[in-house]
Amino acid sequence: MTDRVNPEVRRVADDIDTMEIRGAATIADAAARALRVQALESDASDPATLRADLRAAARTLVETRPTAVSLPNALRYVLRGATGQTVEEIHENVEATATEFCARLDRAQSDLGQVGANRLRDGDIIMTHCHSTDALACVEAAVEQGKHIEAIVKETRPRNQGHITARELHEMGVPVTLIVDSAARRYLNDVDHVLVGADAVAADGSVINKIGTSGLAVNARDRGTPIMVAAQTLKLHPGTMTGHTVDIEMRDTDEVIDEETLAELGSPTVRNPAFDVTPPRYVDAIVTERGQFPPESIVMLMRELFGEHTTEPWVEPA
């Protein structure tokens, strides 16, 4: 059978898989735009074939990052706009829906930043983990309000995403102290807020984020340091009641160790989970573009936004 998935869709899927495209909002934006390309450049001659092409493209994209819920949420949004009685109508509706989705993404992060900035005071020191554009939006908004913010940034091994955070905070004019991951507890006494992002938020308020977030949250609670999670509503996971039911992505071992060194160590088994689950009892507030919420209230927000959970639209109809 001829492969009808557009090459641009496959390129975007590869870039998401290899983390050339990273960050939940960036992934969602790229996925929505890729589906728009699939629709507009499809040579399907009838609506059924065009919808099948769109589902195939969505499956190609959704398989790249099983934990980042912003990806299926973006695909779900665009595919449910693929309505119309003719190929031309579907083209127009998908283009309009994808364009609207990307515009909402732009506004959402700005609105979230304003909400999060209200929790930050002039002179606060924050600690970050990994790289989150939502978390950085809160800091940027606080700086624009004239507040002086300083940051202690964890490197976030093995891919050192904290280096990206350090660079972007520096560009905002925020003084940065970069620390190794294992030094986090040592510096928590100096911190006013732990500020992290999320790849997904479960209905019970559990937070799925870069591996190491859960341990940081436990240490922060022991130290009495509040932990704030910045997450657009795009990252809410309506299909799971607890974070422990989310599929945790396992990354390649070569991110951790090269083959030669591995052999020198006697070829031990290497595990490289990309994410962990932080229970809601360790989270003080989840900040979204809709406002800030205690973790136990997230389920109500999900019901308001998503209603009842339904079959994923990229699944082939029976």
Task: Output the keywords.
single chain; 318 residues; alpha/beta; Four Helix Bundle (Hemerythrin (Met), subunit A); Rossmann fold; 2 domains; seven-stranded mixed β-sheet; three-stranded antiparallel β-sheet; 11 helices; 44% helix; carbohydrate metabolism; NagB/RpiA_transferase-like; isomerase; Ribose 1,5-bisphosphate isomerase
Description of the molecule:
The protein is of the alpha/beta class and 318 residues long. It folds into 2 domains: 7-111, Four Helix Bundle (Hemerythrin (Met), subunit A); 114-306, 3-Layer(aba) Sandwich (Rossmann fold), CATH 3.40.50. It is 44% helix and 12% strand. It has helices at residues 7-17, 24-40, 47-62, 70-79, 87-117, 133-144, 161-172, 184-187, 213-223, 259-264, 298-306; strands spanning 125-128, 150-154, 176-179, 193-196, 200-201, 207-210, 227-230, 275-278, 285-288, 291-293. Strands 3-2-1-4-7-9-10 form a 7-stranded mixed beta sheet, sandwiched between helices. A 3-stranded antiparallel beta sheet has the order 5-6-8, with helices on one face. Helix 5 (87-117) crosses helix 6 (133-144).
Query: Could you say how many structural domains there are in total?
Result: 2
Q: Specify the number of helices.
A: 11
| Terminal CA distance | 20 Å
Mind telling me which CATH architecture of the largest domain this is? 3-Layer(aba) Sandwich
Topology:
Blueprint: H1 7-17, H2 24-40, H3 47-62, H4 70-79, H5 87-117, E1 125-128, H6 133-144, E2 150-154, H7 161-172, E3 176-179, H8 184-187, E4 193-196, E5 200-201, E6 207-210, H9 213-223, E7 227-230, H10 259-264, E8 275-278, E9 285-288, E10 291-293, H11 298-306
Parallel strand pairs: 1-2, 1-4, 2-3, 4-7, 7-9
Antiparallel strand pairs: 5-6, 6-8, 9-10
